């Protein structure tokens, strides 16, 4: 077992309310009320008395809906039962206003919500992202069909109700699935992305980019992860599962000689490359490829970057055995593993320990206050002896974060010298079932 000394105090949040900058809300017909006559309710547009556009429905179209006919909110845990909610203590308040405004427009204009049992209706979800620093708002409306009648009028009305909105995107998903987003998109209003500032860098965020939902705690998370990476200016950093390149670009600015980011989502890689250019960062490159395949090819190559540090932030399901085997073969000096699922993280860390690594520090970060979820950072190093990690155990709370970072950069980053601990720092986590998909 890893000694308790390796597990550091959790890094909490000072103002843990309305922090969630990404809000996803389904729309569904109330039981027995949804018409569900087809994929979408036909809508025509004509000028009203003030010269504005408004919807006009013919007699054969669905009857006008009321707010009570359309449910929006959250699913009950482990079910497809939608619990209506108009307020939430952790969701961004502007995002929630957008969600409710869409429901009201749907009701007024007779736009049918999606019925997942029948496969009918038009509006499936809304995904709203709000820039923490910029205040810019991206709205993605997920529809059960390509045609969006009166889309221009819809965008004007939605932007009138919530003036903070800067862009609106239609995402088309006609599959019978609980996956929220489809592959086809078109920009209805604005540039199709928003900008936000994180750790002093500006980031472009599109509808399918990965971007942490709590920007305040993300800065805490990234500060700690970069501190534990112990960058001296000589290292190549692989940012695996990089998304829009956020932590990799922070590493590029804070001591990495170069950064290579890899992710399977092509749109996220485009955002990462744009983010690098926008911030004037020239020592970072990004690859649109499956992370496991990338690591296998790099491990088989004759050109292995040294010294190497691996940053990895996989999805909830964790990494793959092939990825971890390739990572061990590349023999990075340090592996900094960030995870939103400590169970799959423990499984993967056990694999790395068997491959010759030892856990130095485990640092939980309260990324999701008022929930049972936690983000966890584990820093591992190749197994060796006779160096102290006292400074690595110093956290950013209870002392200067900058001082902690400098002590790692300038001091030894090696193996534990303590004797009296159990045999090394191998981890033997309990065998837990796989985490269900959220």
From TrEMBL:
Residues 28-60, 389-438 are annotated as: Disordered. Gene3D superfamilies: 2.40.50.1070, Vaccinia Virus protein VP39. PROSITE patterns: SAM_MT_RNA_M5U, TRMA_1, TRMA_2. InterPro entries: MeTrfase_TrmA_AS, MeTrfase_TrmA_CS, SAM-dependent_MTases_sf, U5_MeTrfase_fam. The keyword Cytoplasm does not apply. Its EC number is 2.1.1.190. Keywords: Methyltransferase, S-adenosyl-L-methionine, Transferase. GO terms for molecular function: rRNA (uridine-C5-)-methyltransferase activity. It comes from the Bacteria. The active site is at residue 340. The keyword Methyltransferase applies. S-adenosyl-L-methionine binds at residues 212, 241, 263, 313. GO terms for biological process: rRNA base methylation. Signal peptide: none annotated. NCBIfam families: rumA. Belongs to the class I-like SAM-binding methyltransferase superfamily. RNA M5U methyltransferase family. This is 23S rRNA (Uracil(1939)-C(5))-methyltransferase RlmD. It comes from Adlercreutzia mucosicola.
